[in-house]
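Field reference: "sequence" (input) and "structure" (output). Example, ABC transporter ATP-binding protein:
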Amino acid sequence: MELEKPHPVPEHSLAQPLVQLERVEKKYANHTIAVQDANLLVREGEFISFVGPSGCGKSTILRMIAGLSEPSGGNLQVMGGTADSARKSGRLAYVFQDATLMPWCNVLDNVALPLELKGISRKQRTEESLRVLELVGLKDYSKSLPRELSGGMKMRVSIARSLVAQPDLLLMDEPFGALDELTRQTLQQELLGIWSANPRMTVLFVTHNVFEAVYLSTRIAVMTPRPGRIVGQIDVHTSVPRQEDFRTSPQFNELASRVNAVLRH
């Protein structure tokens, strides 16, 4: 397999973590403990996937980092401050499981929404939106309405919308879970290409799919059943962008086996 240049991690990122969880807990009003004693350090430029059984708190952790849910205990810092301040800064973006597009707006206007909310001129937000639509292969569909798109195309629009403001931190909650396998692999490849072209961008990705986590990540955080704790972190020392034959390589199978072993035990 031909080796590519590894995705660089900026040297200055070694001094200051982008995201830090120290004994973070999330307890709901009905006394359900979704996350308990979660510890994680995220550096700039990493691609970290969370895997674990259903209901283990993967999405809960992502929502707390995004400032959409408050921790019940522990310490959570995002970009040197609170998760809420990071969310309000506009430096992070969130991609949900569903595309959550505005059905009455065309593709271009859906993608341009974050820039419109920032008060960016129409000319500039159109230029930036077309740029990211070209990245995800949808520039020719800029005038289409969401109902005219396939599921995979809608998710591409959602990803483009998250990228248009050039976030430092991209949070993705099972964005490919409802897609067929071929579309899923295509979007995995596109996502890796976009991330590898932006070495300062950090991605936190939730998935149930071990093979998806191995293919995409520089590190995989494995969680226990509820109450969710991070019990294993597995580094993926493979250069990016990754070639398709990585999926059938001995290294890929060995990494997937290691992740499954932690999940089982």
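Residues 211 and 256 are 6 Å apart (CA to CA).
The first strand starts at residue 19 and ends at 27.
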